[in-house]
């Protein structure tokens, strides 16, 4: 058995337990608020997606991996009547959160992006935000292509593994916190006061690799937008956010299509179903 096949159940369990409980779901939703790095990331990503959707008149829209429905609520508030929205997530707790946030205005479904409970060619727009990192991206994109109508818009997002922020976060910051936590455990520091970093199961792809997978799935990439553009790295970014709050009023300063794309902690690719 290959190493990849051996590790897959472990990764799937890591992903499953992260948002299986209502308290964890509420924490994820709360991360969208405030002024910290996570809030900036989500705010910037939403602005980038809004720009892509500006050219879309409406239709049947699927938000797969919808989480607690923050984007669903945003679309209801800003594009009411334009889209007939379906929200899908593999976590029942997440879908319950969407129901509480959006009521009966959207169709709700519990399902895995790798095997969605929808008919072929059902949607004019498919959003896959913050979900491909947690799954087999190739399988997921083939499913996305299956449920999208010919000519339909597909918007995928991905953490940028080559950005300075992610390189430092994953290569230095999180390992340092885990090491510190182990030392604190050894000297008897109470669990509630220890440092650490949970394992997430994230596998991030470069834009080049994601474009390749989109093509293979029958999706034609059209545009790449980097978001949450920043030169800071953790934990210094938290200090920066305390005094630099312009990003909420001017989210356009947090995205890039040109030379600064490499500074984006995440990126999206807009594609069309062939």
From TrEMBL:
The name this protein goes by in its record: Class I SAM-dependent methyltransferase
Organism annotation: Amycolatopsis balhimycina DSM 5908
Gene3D superfamilies in UniProt: Vaccinia Virus protein VP39
InterPro entries: Methyltransf_11, SAM-dependent_MTases_sf
A GO MF term: S-adenosylmethionine-dependent methyltransferase activity
Keyword terms of this UniProt record: Methyltransferase, Transferase
Methyltransferase type domain sequence ranges: 62-155
Gene Ontology biological process terms from the UniProt entry: methylation
């Amino acid at each position: 058995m290959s190493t990849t096949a051996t590790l897959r159940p472990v990764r799937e369990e890591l992903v499953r337990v992260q948002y299986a409980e209502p308290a964890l779901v509420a924490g994820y939703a709360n991360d969208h608020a405030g002024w910290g790095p996570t809030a900036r990331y989500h705010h910037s990503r939403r602005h980038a997606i809004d720009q892509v959707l500006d050219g879309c008149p409406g239709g049947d829209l699927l938000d797969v991996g919808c989480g607690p429905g923050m984007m669903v609520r945003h679309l209801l508030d800003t594009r009411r009547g334009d889209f007939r929205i379906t929200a899908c997530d593999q976590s029942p707790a997440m879908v319950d959160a969407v129901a509480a946030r959006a009521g009966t205005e959207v169709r709700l479904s519990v399902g895995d992006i790798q095997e969605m409970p929808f008919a072929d060619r059902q949607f004019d727009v498919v959003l896959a935000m913050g979900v491909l990192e947690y799954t087999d991206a190739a399988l997921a994109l083939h499913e996305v292509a299956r449920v999208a109508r010919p000519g339909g818009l597909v918007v995928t997002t991905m953490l940028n593994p080559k950005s300075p922020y992610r390189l430092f976060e994953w290569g230095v910051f999180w390992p340092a916190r885990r090491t510190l936590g182990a030392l604190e455990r050894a000297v008897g520091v109470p669990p509630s006061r220890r440092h650490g970093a949970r394992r997430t199961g994230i596998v991030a792809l470069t834009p080049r690799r994601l474009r390749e997978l989109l093509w293979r799935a029958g999706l034609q990439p059209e545009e790449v937008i980097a978001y949450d553009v920043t030169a800071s790295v953790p934990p210094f970014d938290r200090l920066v956010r305390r005094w630099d709050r312009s990003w909420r009023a001017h989210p356009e300063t947090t995205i890039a299509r040109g030379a600064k794309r490499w500074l984006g902690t995440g990126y999206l690719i807009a594609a069309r179903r062939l």
